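Ticket #247: bound-state structure for heme C.
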Amino acid sequence: MIGFRAFFAVCLLLALGLLVAAAFGSARAAALPPKAADGMRLWSANRCAACHTLYGQGGAYAPDLTHIAAQRGADYLREFFANPGAFHPGQRPMPRFGLTRTETDALIAFLTWTGEQAPAAAWPPRPILVSGGLSAGIAPMIASASTSADDAAARGRALFSSSPAICSTCHALVPDVVVVGPSLASVANRAGSRVTGLSAEEYLRNSILHPGDFVVPGFQDVMQKNFGSLLTSDQISDLVAFLLTLR
Ligand code: HEC
Ligand code: HEC
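RESOLUTION: The complex was predicted; output attached.
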């Protein structure tokens, strides 16, 4: 008999514990601002997680979006959702969801909120830094290769199409191909005469740091404005060195 009572007492405690946990859980969900909560519903309803991950959870077909709001900014994301097919040419396509402006803003609010949560600071996890073996032999070779002369331009070329810069999302290097921004083929030839008083190098640096200062005729001012904080000044110099080779 005693055994039974103890059993029921334990069950009762467990049930209470679950109730408290559920209440605590919903209190935490309520902390999600209403607009972000709408965005979260759209995120599930459109099955974004079938292709994308947040904190690494979801589908591996498309990139992790934990930090996308900080990386791209709201203006870029609005353009992107309106016409995803115009971005990432030649890569896996992202479907067009026909979202309204309100829905787009809600999704952006959700993605912004996601990137601001505590776990985001620890995402992505640190890569394993295995030393020894093959890499011990290769590392010094890579180090000496990258200190050799015109490697600022080579690093800039690599950065142009990789994270976090991904300039290639919007710029082609083939003449006359417009993605979102103008083709940057032979940009070095025109950079020096774009703005009076600015050398080619100064103009290119300023185009990355303050794209709104001079807007190329025929284009909209949608280039993201956060490269100054997203990239180090060395990375920006590398990009400029690369752009100066495009003659
Ligand atoms: C069928 C797969 C698929 C689904 C579903 C999907 N996406 Fe994507 N998404 C992609 C692909 C592919 C890319 C392009 C990235 C690449 O591979 O270069 C992308 C890119 C993005 C980007 C990054 C844009 C950039 O240029 O940096 C955002 C933001 C995004 N998707 C949001 C969403 C949201 C929000 C949803 C749900 C409404 C969604 N995606 C649903 C496949 C998908
Ligand atoms: C969201 C799309 C987008 C991204 C990403 C982007 N750009 Fe742009 N860029 C544009 C647009 C649109 C213009 C034309 C309007 C303007 O001048 O601001 C432009 C203009 C430029 C120009 C001026 C070209 C000229 O002929 O005068 C340069 C240089 C440039 N971008 C470099 C870069 C570099 C380097 C990166 C990566 C660090 C980059 N852009 C990323 C959209 C983008």
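RESOLUTION NOTES: The pocket of heme C (ligand 1) is lined by residues 46-48, 50-52, 61-63, 65, 68, 72, 77, 80, 87-88, 91-92, 94-95, 97, 107, 169 (CB under 6 Å).
TICKET STATUS: resolved
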